[in-house]
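Record 1 of the preview.
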Amino acid sequence: MDLWREKFADCSDWIEAALQYTGGTHTLSDIEDGVEAGHFQLWPGKRAVIVTEIVVYPRLKACQFFLAGGDLDELKEMVPCVEAWAKDLGCTRMTLAGRRGWERSFLKGLGYVPKWTVLGKELQNG
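->
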């Protein structure tokens, strides 16, 4: 078994918990497939996990915190490493779309501020 698959299995409960807030956009196996294909990056910790995605826009490259779960103190320790990696890749922005609680989390102390509002509407067939 690949090392990343072992780490993924170790973190799957945290990933599953975070997926509950995505509105049904992805399953655990979608995330696993995305990591394997290189669309997502897995950042496993001992008590937490982060899943990122690089988004390339016409004028900039951003690193999106797609999923995060587990111990908040460990997540706080992990974020600067992810930021440094993203900067090395040429990213000029970090983004996160999530629950409002993230606005009051440790991210505020790391310079993260609300910038946009995300609205959604489910479209029904017919």
